[in-house]
């Protein structure tokens, strides 16, 4: 039997406010446990929460960025459940009237096809604390620093049909969130977490199968692995004559294992009721329009501009536009060197490699974009070859100076003197006459051997184009 996968996502995005959604406690990451939770976060008797207006503005900005309906009147409810890291005994969230209504995000797949993923809604809510299970000798520690941290939960329709589509959506969502500045998207810090609802059904069947929810995935790689594993598990169960249990599951990306956590709750299990301490949020057209006017260039518009203004391929434009910081870095480097394609290749290649190796953001790159532009200029004007440029790039990353300083200090300037290169070519031919005779006789694959030998004795400083030209002239003699 052929099976079809059905996937919907619930994504928690931490909003980049300085204080929590209902209190003045800091949201800074990395503080000592329980140093950023005040009486409101702890729900002590007599406290009254106040909504953080910046959280509201950021939620509206997201809704506008995905062409969604904005809820002009939204309100908060209490979602009741008991867990040690939820000091109130309930989570303040939105259910019946969320601040962001239906919208959509368009994604592009690896084969070039595009697809629209519908957003059901997005709502504001507070985060819970964190349970710590290490170093407590059989006990659990509770850190309430995250309690009350502002979140927007984004709920999609079940429109995705593969792990590839889900990951493409997650990456596009991440690019939008970071581009408009409502969140930093740091998944390793819990700033963006994915809950994946997965079911399978016989191909052609309209009715959905029973779904499971794999919670708290914090990387694109783990999401892809978890989906593929769960789809395979569900198909195996059904083909063996079993049935799928609606449940919440956990995936361990380090061990590549998944397990059931608890049976899946429905909304009525949480006994939602309106929060008596918070007034409805009422927005007017002027407020919404002001936020709309303040939105920066969105990734889709930036991608199209890169194609039109810089003649980049859709793939290159998409990769660069997906990261607002990388896109700015690329444009600044291009402004210096005047070659967008060369700058794009280096930004997606050597720069990205350096940042991954050192686990840095683009903003913390040790090489300024203007310095990269100067390095690329030296490739263009034949001062150095592309191969030598990689050595210079590494020296720049190590803090040895800019491209010109390193080229001068290390004597890396490319040899472009025709006479000098011809002398090297003659030397190599003399030492390898038999192979050269074969090359002249038509064994073209030996061309690489001779070019490589000349580059070797020149320590990589001979101009490769001139080397090729001189060798070809020798063949025709």
Automatic annotation (TrEMBL):
InterPro entries: Asn/Gln-tRNA_amidoTrfase_suB/E, Asn/Gln-tRNA_Trfase_suB/E_cat, Asn/Gln_amidotransferase, Asn/Gln_tRNA_amidoTrase-B-like, GatB, GatB_C_1, GatB_Yqey_C_2, Gln-tRNA_amidoTrfase_suB_CS
Domain Asn/Gln amidotransferase: 328-475
Keyword Nucleotide-binding in annotation: yes
Xref: SUPFAM superfamilies: GatB/YqeY motif (SSF89095), Glutamine synthetase/guanido kinase (SSF55931)
Molecular function via GO: asparaginyl-tRNA synthase (glutamine-hydrolyzing) activity; ATP binding; glutaminyl-tRNA synthase (glutamine-hydrolyzing) activity; transferase activity
Catalytic function, reaction form: L-glutamyl-tRNA(Gln) + L-glutamine + ATP + H2O = L-glutaminyl-tRNA(Gln) + L-glutamate + ADP + phosphate + H(+); L-aspartyl-tRNA(Asn) + L-glutamine + ATP + H2O = L-asparaginyl-tRNA(Asn) + L-glutamate + ADP + phosphate + 2 H(+)
Gene: gatB
PANTHER family in UniProt: GLUTAMYL-TRNA GLN AMIDOTRANSFERASE SUBUNIT B MITOCHONDRIAL AND PROKARYOTIC PET112-RELATED, GLUTAMYL-TRNA(GLN) AMIDOTRANSFERASE SUBUNIT B, MITOCHONDRIAL
Assembly behavior: Heterotrimer of A, B and C subunits.
Name of the protein in its database record: Aspartyl/glutamyl-tRNA(Asn/Gln) amidotransferase subunit B
Enzyme class: ligase
Keywords: ATP-binding, Ligase, Nucleotide-binding, Protein biosynthesis, Transferase
Any one GO BP annotation for this protein: translation
Enzyme nomenclature, EC number: 6.3.5.-
Function: Allows the formation of correctly charged Asn-tRNA(Asn) or Gln-tRNA(Gln) through the transamidation of misacylated Asp-tRNA(Asn) or Glu-tRNA(Gln) in organisms which lack either or both of asparaginyl-tRNA or glutaminyl-tRNA synthetases. The reaction takes place in the presence of glutamine and ATP through an activated phospho-Asp-tRNA(Asn) or phospho-Glu-tRNA(Gln).
Family: Belongs to the GatB/GatE family. GatB subfamily.
């Amino acid at each position: 039997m052929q099976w079809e996968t059905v996937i919907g996502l619930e994504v928690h995005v931490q909003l980049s406010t300085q204080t929590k959604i209902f209190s003045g406690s800091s949201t800074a990451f990395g503080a000592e446990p329980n140093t950023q939770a005040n009486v409101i976060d702890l729900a002590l008797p007599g406290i009254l929460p106040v909504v953080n207006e910046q959280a509201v503005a950021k939620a509206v900005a997201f809704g506008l960025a995905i062409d969604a309906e904005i809820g002009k009147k939204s309100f908060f409810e209490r979602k009741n459940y008991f867990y040690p890291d939820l000091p109130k005994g309930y989570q303040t969230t939105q259910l019946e009237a969320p601040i962001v209504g239906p919208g959509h995000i368009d994604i592009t797949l690896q084969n070039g096809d595009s697809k629209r993923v519908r957003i059901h809604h997005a709502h504001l809510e507070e985060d819970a604390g964190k349970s710590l299970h290490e170093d407590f000798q059989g006990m659990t520690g509770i850190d309430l620093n995250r309690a009350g941290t502002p979140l927007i939960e984004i709920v999609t329709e079940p429109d995705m049909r593969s792990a590839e589509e889900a990951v493409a959506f997650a990456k596009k969502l991440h690019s939008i969130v970071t581009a408009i500045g409502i969140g930093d998207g740091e998944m390793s810090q819990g700033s963006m977490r994915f809950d994946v609802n997965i079911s399978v059904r016989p191909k052609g069947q309209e009715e959905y199968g029973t779904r499971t929810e794999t919670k708290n995935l914090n990387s694109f790689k783990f999401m892809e692995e978890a989906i593929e594993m769960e789809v395979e598990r569900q198909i195996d169960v059904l083909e063996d004559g079993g049935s799928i249990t609606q449940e919440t599951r956990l995936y361990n990306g380090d061990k590549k294992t998944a397990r059931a956590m608890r049976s899946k709750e429905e909304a009525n299990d949480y006994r939602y009721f309106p929060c008596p301490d918070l007034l409805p949020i009422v927005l007017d057209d002027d407020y919404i329009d002001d936020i709309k006017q303040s939105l920066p260039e969105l990734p889709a518009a930036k991608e199209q501009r890169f194609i039109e203004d810089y003649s980049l391929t859709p793939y290159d434009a998409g990769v660069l536009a997906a990261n607002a910081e990388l896109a700015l870095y690329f444009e600044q480097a291009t402004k210096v060197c005047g070659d967008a394609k060369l700058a794009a290749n280096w930004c997606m290649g050597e720069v990205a490699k350096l940042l991954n190796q050192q686990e840095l953001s683009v903003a913390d790159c040790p090489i300024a974009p203007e310095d990269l532009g100067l390095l690329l200029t030296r490739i263009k004007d034949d001062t150095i070859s592309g191969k030598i440029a990689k050595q210079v790039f590494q020296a720049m990353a190590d803090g040895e100076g800019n491209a010109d300083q390193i080229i001068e200090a290390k004597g890396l300037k490319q040899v472009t003197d025709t006479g000098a290169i011809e002398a090297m070519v003659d030397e190599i031919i003399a030492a390898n006459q038999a192979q050269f005779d074969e090359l002249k006789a038509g064994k073209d694959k030996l061309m690489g051997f001779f070019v490589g030998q000349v580059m070797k004795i020149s320590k990589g400083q001979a101009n490769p184009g001139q080397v090729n030209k001189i060798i070809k002239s020798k063949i025709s003699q």
